[in-house]
């Protein structure tokens, strides 16, 4: 049983969709020294003239973007400091100059950027192109888009004209629900009510299959008036990458009161229960894989915010969070480094130095926007593993009675099964093993349990140890702590077992030795 099943009628639905997605557009050709050299040569620009040439291009781009605001009769504001919250300013400008659809405003500031410059090579006594840091003007164009709702595009006004696009999956879904005439209510980027939650989920799942890169190509052509020159030279414009991708699963309750009843206990229980290997299990990984040693930092962080409580687990730069948001409890996975995950791709293979064939192979996932469907698959699976492993809050009196019951011996069909001594270090170790999120999610076999419980034995695969494990499993089953699923010799912790283990892990004063 997970918290969705536990709360029953108080849960009005579960919705999984992308949340914040940051997409970056790169002109890889202009980001490569040799390709940039070819570009300048193709357009008859000498290295000594690059500075003036780039200044003119930037001036033309700035005028073009500012004219977009002027032609659409929308506000243009230059911000003297890059620290100001541009999102809040854009919403304020929308209130002052309301529209239903289209360009909201254009903001600009000066920020540090990575760019291409011409420098002197004293050794070879010639000019050369080199990557360097400088300050340049950035533009932020905010939109109320008919497809994506509230979004913005950020563009660098100096070579290589890097673009960053911010969209939000909940905003996109909102627009689709309006088109489908499905009633809904929202609070602070979350849905508190959806008339047809199943239909909404079907719509949300379509975002990964839509060709959103075509939409971005169309929008950026209107913004970057230098893009035709780039495309004419290289026959290609921007390559779109997923810089940051959040995918959330919202457990929608019938009221805020239903969330407040147990959420504080839920985050505290999860913080004190989940260990490093549990966090790895959520991400579909193990601390020690065959032939692979994980190297990186795993952390958990619990904070009290103005909005409520937030629990965050990080595996290197990827993370999973749980926090409350209006009527919802949100589980959210953020993938910043996709290389920690795998994607199935077609790979060319040469046979006998001549023939070429294609085969499927699991490879580290890249940041291409074409992999967005895989981001969604992985994140949704991570969210559901987390939800299924969450320790359900248990009242002390009930838990103590259950602890007392498993401490007593029982007789079934004439056979006596001893109880568990919660002051015995071996039984304590057993319950710590069963509390592993990986075992709770995926279950375990005789082999898995004995490898952990009898790991200090010389031969944990001996007949003697296998029989000991069999008797231990039988004892756990008779006390209702685990159950066998189907015909397979695989066991899962029961609802009763989870309550006992959760309390056992949260209140060590009852079993310390």
Structure at a glance:
Helix content is 37%, strand content 31%. It has 513 residues and is an alpha+beta fold.
Could you name the key traits of this structure?
513 residues; alpha+beta; 11-stranded mixed β-sheet; two-stranded antiparallel ribbon; 18 helices; disordered C terminus
Tell me what the structure shows:
The structure is a single chain. The protein has helices spanning 3-7, 33-42, 50-71, 86-96, 169-179, 197-204, 212-223, 227-234, 256-260, 263-273, 276-282, 372-389, 396-407, 425-434, 437-442, 446-453, 463-478, 495-506; strands at residues 11-26, 76-78, 102-121, 126-145, 149-156, 163-168, 184-186, 191-194, 239-253, 288-289, 292-293, 298-304, 309-315, 318-325, 328-335, 342-351, 355-364, 410-412, 415-417, 482-484, 491-493. It is an alpha+beta fold.
